[in-house]
Every structure is written in structure tokens, then in C-alpha cells.
Specification:
Blueprint (H helix, E strand, L loop, with lengths): L1 H11 L3 E5 L8 H12 L6 H24 L5 E4 L2 H4 L2 H17 L3 E8 L3 H11 L2 E4 L2 E4 L5 E4 L5 H14 L2 E7 L6 H4 L9 H13 L3 E2 L2 E2 L1 E5 L4 H10 L5 E3 L9 H4 L10 E5 L1 H4 L15 H21 L2
Parallel strand pairs: 1-2, 1-12, 2-3, 3-6, 6-7, 7-10, 10-11, 11-12
Antiparallel strand pairs: 4-5, 8-9
Length: about 325
């Protein structure tokens, strides 16, 4: 699967993944009003159920327009499942619908689910998001994303079931190594025995796990490394030469394209950079306010194009 992602990045010359994290505050009022009108005639719903159905419908229409606007210029999307779970079962249905629609448009889908457990529980997570579940003689894909994010805190017991499914079903994972949030250092920067930071120790384990699922130069076992920590990212790039990096933190979280230049290899590959709010909520930013709420999707395309050009420049100037 990692080779499919690399091929898609090369085809569009765009190491960019759009985070589909649709907080309802990002969804323009005209979409929310239309969604309320649509569910108002549905019988048998309580007021609470009607509200959740309307929110989910608004999110779906928001996602669809953004995907229609950017699918030809970016290789991948990354829906964050929590943004859908907050709307209950209607929200999860839209998560599934979004994944399927993005794949129909030829996009690689990274399910940002951050799962991690042990034994049969971890195996069940892996089946649900990446693999197939055996039911009554049938092998059925469920959420069916191409990659999933994985929390390594429980060690090999939690990660190996995902690696197994990657090998069985041609899928990939991105393991949390050094995350972009400000408090990540509370645990990830702690020095272990021998003076090695915890995030480097996790990076070493990612290399071990990745060796079990190689596909050409890179492994199907990738790493999440926050763009907000460029020095640590540079160290991890050297420590994990065969590990593809998913880098959140560009734009809204403060990281620049120049911060990311060392995340890439000598061919300008090896990493894909996420932007969520900076693209899907671009119309709310001063730089793209001229598009207005009605033009939110066009604003998203413009923001994605600007990000692509910014990264191309930074990579070329290394």
C-alpha cells in the first residue's frame, strides 16, 4: 500500500493530505439549514435524533463539496473519526460514506483512528478499519481505509495485529512517534535508560515492525511525526530511513514548509504533510475570505494549491 501512496504523490507532485475533520463550526450556515430542512420531514425521530441526523447530513454535504474541489490536485485525505463519532451513529454512517466516496474519487484514505490495544481487541480494530471480518462464510470489509493511525503505547502486542492485517490485505499504518501537540513532550521527550528520548525508542521499534512489511524502499508501517518539531523530525528521518512519515501540524498549528524540508528524502519523497483546518476552513481565514461561505469549497482548493506550491518550494530549496 505504501507504494500506491508514493505513486499517487508523484503523479500529482503534491505531498499533501487533506484532513477531513469537520467540526460543525466549520460548516457554513446554508448547508446546516438545508440539512435541517431535509430531515424535518423524516417521521419517527425524536428532537435529539433529528438534530444529530441534520448535523451528520450537513457534514456529509460539506465533505462532498470539498472532496469534489480537491481530489484532482491532492493524493490523499485523512478523516478523523472523532469528528464523526461526536454525532453518534449518524456521524459514523457519514464517516463510512465519506471514506467510500473518497475512494471512488481515486483518493488514498488515511483513517485517523489512533487505535491501540492488545490481543483480540487490537485484532478486531485492525479488521474493522483495515481488513475484513469473517461473517457467515463471507469476508467483508467494514470501514475499509487504506491506512490507519495506531497508538503504540501497549507495545508490540498492540501493533503486531495491525502489521499482520497490512500484510494480508495490502494496507498500511502510521504509528504515533512524535506528535504535534504542545504537551507531547510530557511523555515522548522523557529520557530512557542510556539517555535516549522516548520518541526515538518508539522510532526504533517502528523500524523493527516495519521490517516485517517492506514494499520497495519504504515500509507499510509509517510514523506520525509532528511538523511542529523540526529538529526531532530531522533526527527521526535519519533514524528511520525506510519509514514514511505522516506530518501533522502545518498551517493552523504553526509549522511552515521550511520546518518540514528535512522530513523528506533526497528524492523529495518519504513524507506526506497534513492540513485540516487550514484547508477545510480556509474560507474563514483572511487570505481566502473573499470566497465567502458559499464558496467554501473553492477556498479549500485555493488553500490546498497554495500549500502544494509552498512545499514544492521548500523541497526544491533544501
Amino acid at each position: 500500500m505504501i507504494q500506491k501512496l508514493i505513486d499517487a504523490i508523484k503523479a500529482k507532485d503534491a505531498p499533501v493530505v487533506v484532513g477531513l475533520d469537520p467540526n460543525l463550526s466549520f460548516v457554513p450556515k446554508h448547508l446546516q439549514d438545508a440539512a435541517l430542512d431535509k430531515v424535518s420531514s423524516v417521521e419517527g425521530l425524536s428532537d435529539d435524533q433529528r438534530a444529530l441526523e441534520a448535523a451528520a447530513e450537513a457534514v456529509w454535504q460539506f465533505n462532498k463539496e470539498i472532496v469534489d474541489a480537491v481530489y484532482d490536485i491532492v493524493p490523499a485525505v485523512k478523516p478523523q473519526v472523532a469528528m464523526y463519532e461526536q454525532f453518534g451513529l449518524p456521524g459514523l454512517a457519514v464517516y463510512d460514506r465519506t471514506v467510500r466516496y473518497c475512494k471512488e474519487k481515486g483518493l488514498i484514505v488515511i483513517g485517523d483512528v489512533k487505535r491501540g490495544d492488545i490481543g483480540s481487541t487490537s485484532a478486531s480494530y485492525a479488521k474493522a478499519h483495515l481488513g475484513r471480518i469473517g461473517v457467515y462464510g463471507r469476508e467483508i470489509p467494514v470501514f475499509d481505509v487504506d491506512f490507519a493511525t495506531v497508538n503504540p503505547y501497549l507495545g508490540t502486542d498492540g501493533v503486531k495485529p495491525f502489521v499482520d492485517v497490512c500484510n494480508q490485505c495490502d494496507r498500511g499504518i502510521f504509528v504515533l512517534v512524535k506528535t504535534s501537540n504542545p504537551s507531547s513532550g510530557e511523555f515522548q521527550d522523557i529520557l530512557t535508560e542510556g539517555g535516549v528520548p522516548m520518541y526515538e525508542l518508539v522510532g526504533q521499534k517502528v523500524c523493527e515492525w516495519g521490517a516485517q512489511s517492506m514494499e520497495g524502499r519504504y515500509s507499510n508501517v509509517g510514523a506520525v511525526v509532528g511538523a511542529t518539531y523540526p529538529e526531532q523530525g530531522e533526527r527521526l528521518r535519519k533514524l528511520m530511513p525506510n519509514t514514511f512519515i505522516l506530518a501533522p501540524g502545518y498551517g493552523a498549528q504553526g509549522a511552515s514548509a521550511d520546518d518540514l524540508s528535512s522530513f523528506f528524502d533526497e528524492e523529495g519523497l518519504g513524507a506526506i504533510v497534513n492540513s485540516s483546518r487550514g484547508i477545510i476552513a480556509a474560507y474563514t481565514k483572511d487570505a481566502y475570505s473573499s470566497f465567502g461561505p458559499e464558496g467554501f469549497a473553492a477556498a479549500s482548493r485555493a488553500a490546498a494549491q497554495d500549500m502544494i506550491e509552498d512545499l514544492r518550494r521548500a523541497i526544491a530549496e533544501r
